Amino acid sequence: MTVSIISENGIAVVTIDNPPVNALSQALRQALVEAVAKLDADAAVKAVVLICAGRTFIAGADVSEFGKPPQPPHLPDVVATIEGARKPWVAAIHGSALGGGLEVALGCAWRVAVASASLGLPEVKLGIIPGAGGTVRLPRLIGPAAAVELVTSGSPVDAKKAEGLGLVDAVIEGDLLAGAIAFANGAAGKTRPEPISSRAVVPVEAGFWEGAEKAVAAKAKREAAPLRALASVRRASETDFASAMAFERETFLDLRGSQQASALRHVFFAERAAPRPPELAGITPRDVRSAAVIGGGTMGAGIAAALRDAGLPVILIERDAAAVERGLANVKAIYDGSVKRGRVTQAIADARMAGVAGSGDYGLLADTDLIIEAVFEDLSVKRAVFEKLSAVCRPDAVLATNTSYLDPDAIGEGIAHPERFLGLHFFSPAHIMKLLEIVPTGTTAPDVLATGFALARLLGKIPVRAGICDGFIGNRILKVTRAQAERLLLSGATPAAVDAAMRAFGLPMGPFEAQDLGGLDIAAFQRKAARERGETPFAPVADRLCALERYGQKTGGGWYDYQPGDRAPKPSDTVAAIIAEAAESRAQRAWDEAGIVDAILLPMVNEATCILEEHVALRAADIDLVKIHGYGFPRWRGGPMHYAEGRGLSEVVAVLDRLAADGLAEPPSDGLRRAAKAGGFSVLAG
Ligand code: 3H9
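A: This is the predicted complex of the input protein with (S)-3-Hydroxyhexanoyl-CoA.
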């Protein structure tokens, strides 16, 4: 049953039970309206407690209904019905009261919550604004400034903070239901507070809205919802309740059907599906209570910090005492940075650092549950590490390689108990970046693969299963990004124009700026290895820059020139001359922003389609998560595959055909043509 009602001694308890998160489905909305009518008609009832079963209060509207036409009763009417009920309602909150859940609570006469509860309006994160009075009642309850912060950031507050804001009337110690009933009994005799909808909004200082607009616009960049949410709070503060509600609803319905909302919903569900791949259902992961990292360079130190942040004790192994010192210093530098940025206190940083033991002795790993290798990208060096690990580790200890380009099957050759070996590909900086590519080898046991996913959950990362190929999912696509960016240079575009176009599309940085920041030498090293394997990587300009030791910001020049101490890229005459020379007699054209984006992005989609067809990725949505969480692809675009589907795969094929005819991209793959015919990528997913 969705809603049940029990009455005792004048207090009715309405319990919502709509797992998993008590989302406001049509049936639940209907049941709430009926509950109000029933309790209004019950003379024995003095007050009503609204509480939820399971892990949370109402977590919001049912997001899965958003693609469909809204069905009555509409949530604003449900909230109005609760607010207008003859008997006062008390919302009893545990877990999360989010979005429509908080809006329902705002319809209640009072709100009480346990200390661990959180309350918020996260709608902007889904590309919409609250649609059931959130932007209209909140400023009337807590004032416009606090309302603006809650509504435009989408971030929740905890119960204590909510009490301070006046959003919660009491924080309940101990049992929530008993506390809420006691509160309702105490309140029943008192004057009921004025409904929030009838209250006036406290005036703001001159210039408040203009300042808020600037601040919100700067943060939102090209996301539409935060500014629209601000406009709705402003309207609510400057006009009567009914007009403000109409304005909010109109904005909500407009955004609900927008491309940004559809993209953000897609990412919302993709992120929730990723940690639970159906193929691993029912498989119990191995216990991971201790971890070790081999190699204390940038990646190893970042992985060690990520493991410590999740509470695991960590042993950091390096070749000799000096390397151990350097590795520990790298971890310490991460924590010093975290303290400086206010992410953790000094005491927390010290405690985390104290949990990292550096050593050169592999013998210390005899009882460690998980060992992640993060040494130099060289097959023989990595194999030597696993030979040592095979000799000392428990046979059930999970062994992982963090390789980004080598073949994990080759790395794991000869390992003892190969079923406990897999690839765990972190992204730099590993303690920050959310993506974790999980790469099973031909011999990885299902429970070891499940351990990779469980680890991701523990570390707060987004796990994506990737098959073995050069670069797995993310770096394989990155290679195409870079090759396309160079093709553009050879046909008339400049690095600055390419970077500007990709930034305008929503990426935090263009491909050339990003290479200058990260260093051109790593990719040069990989191209060298690829050539030794007989491959022919395409990087005519980058190769010339590396020959001149223009490796990026760290050498004072790469794709751009840099003045000492200044990270601002300046167009470089040297680079322009190299491009002109490399372009030789190639046809030049004038590129506009849209053309540049197409010439980079659509070939990435083409490559991603091959990745999907080869089952290197299992779902198109997984590829979207890789690009969003590993490479800064704008979340509000939904990822490259969602973007391509939204654009229409037939059009994507047509553009690629045109680019290929001019020698500016590979032709569309058979898989992409098939997906275009079928109208989506699901035809290829395995
Ligand atoms: C809104 O309210 C609009 C209104 O203003 C206006 C209306 C007119 N709907 O995250 P989890 C599913 S907008 C449908 O892993 P946790 C989720 O897909 C909404 N389904 O759990 C997953 O399903 P499955 C504003 C939802 O314990 C399962 O629940 N609200 C919804 O780590 C478990 O999810 C939000 O944006 C939903 N609203 O975290 C809140 N929410 O098991 C979004 C979850 O099949 N939700 N599911 O994969 C959350 O932030 C987290 O789910 C929460 C629990 C913190 C509540």
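The radius of gyration is 28 Å. Residues 593-613 form the longest helix (21 residues).
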